[in-house]
Amino acid sequence: MRELNLSSYTRKIIPKVVAIAFFINSLDSMILNIAIPTIARSLQVSPLELKLAVTSYLLSQGVFIPVSGWLADRFGTRKIFMLSVALFGLGSLASGFSFSLYQLVLARLLQGVGGAMMLPVGRIALNKIYPKSEIFKIMATVGTISLLGPALGPIFGGLIVSYFSWRWIFFINIPFVITGLILINKYMPNLVNHEVERLDWLGFLLFGMGVAGVAFAFSIIGSEALPFSNEFIFLLIGVVCFGLYYLHHKRKINPFINTAVFKIRTYRIALICSANIRLGTSALSFLLALMYQLTYHLSAMKTAILLLPYPLGMLVTKVLATAVVNRLGLKQTMLYNTVILAFVIISFCFIQPIDHKLLIVISLFIFGYSISLQYTSLQTLNIIDATPTLLGQMISLAAALQQVMGSVSVAFSALLLQIFLLRHRHVEFSAHAFHSTFIVIAAVILMSYYHIAKLHHDDGQSVTGHKSKRKLVVDQ
């Protein structure tokens, strides 16, 4: 790769520009969860129907993440990074001006497309601009700044909902978007890969429609708020598209997603475990925000303060994860974490925010630390046996699965809650319904224990330094 002629000031500011984009992306989910009851009242829908505002964003990310790297190589990092930030801003603006759930879901889909390209293109740009000797330090700094998003999200959400209109949880992104666009245009070079292969567009369309169809079908089960809520039609479309993609990819030399990746033992286990873990954990902040506000009638601000230890625990992981995994190895770390995560979720059946605030703070901090450590371990497991030709596809597919399972998790948890609420219909938003939901998702998490146990004790040894002294790269 040719040497880039960039001034020292430009080289210092580019990571900060990327960090702004990562920050607003990571801020989004936590800030929205706090506002869900308020938005539901404003749009005159059930709070559970607002799951669609969360799932639509994650769903569009899952569809477009795999193609974002190719777009950056083909058209240039600056152009695609600017496009991603602009789409995210337009989606935020449209979300703030939404006056129905239907409008909000469409706006969030647009916002998710921008968010899908933002993270991978930002990482690609940094890897192309800086030498490998500097990239770990830069990514650690950018990653830490991005984690400030979920850390500040609950507080921002609580303040906005308490003292302003809920619409400002989306409008707050606009100053960051405008600043980011100006800085990207001024400082980021437009790096193009002139040797990039042609994209398998038909494969992308079939695979993307398969993901969208199946995930959206799960998202709208039990929903009556949208005019097109027929989950069976979307599920059929998704399954048919996956079948057509399978037939298509067998005839392509360079398919969009090569199914050979599923033959790699460690990667296959990582995907299964990631699906299990994310299905059980991704909706926790969504459920707790609903329970504390609708069942225990806490204000948005008090709920935000209670949820704050969750992202703070994730921040602490950035400091300690390397030492923990180097000491225990991937397999033992993940086995211990699986049990810890399940028991912490079950603990919310016994501690309530009126009398047990300190216990909630401790539990959420432990959960944040453990889930971040588990995600870090899974991301490492994704690549330990990757071949150079499949590495890009393996990373993209794992990232897409992460977002799709986040969407399915919220939909699955909301459906469970809806079912259990019918059993306790004499009490609106009964605590027992939430507790039953927690028990089921804890059981889902424990299912991953069986698959993690299939790992060899020396899996990942060359990366984690469990016996050697090499370091685990913590990248979230």
What does this entry look like structurally?
- The chain is mostly helical and 476 residues long.
- It has 3 domains: 1-198, Growth Hormone, Chain: A (Up-down Bundle), CATH 1.20.1250.20; 200-255; 260-476, MFS general substrate transporter like domains (Growth Hormone, Chain: A, Up-down Bundle), CATH 1.20.1250.
- It is built from 18 helices and no strands.
- The protein has helices spanning 8-43, 51-75, 77-96, 101-129, 132-163, 168-171, 173-187, 201-219, 231-249, 265-281, 284-295, 300-307, 309-328, 330-347, 357-383, 391-423, 431-452, 461-464.
- α13 (309-328) packs antiparallel against α14 (330-347).
- The longest helix is centred in the first third of the chain and has 36 residues, at 8-43.
- Mean pLDDT is 83; it is low at 468-476.
List the main descriptive attributes of the protein structure presented here.
476 residues; mainly alpha; Growth Hormone, Chain: A; 76% helix; globular
CATH class of the largest domain: Mainly Alpha
Largest sheet: none
Poorly predicted regions: 468-476
Topology, number of strands: 0
Treating each run of at least 4 consecutive H or I residues as one helix, how many helices? 18
Globally, the shape reads: globular
CATH superfamily (homologous) name of the largest domain: MFS general substrate transporter like domains
Roughly how many Å apart are the termini?
A: 26 Å
Percent of residues in beta strands: under 5%
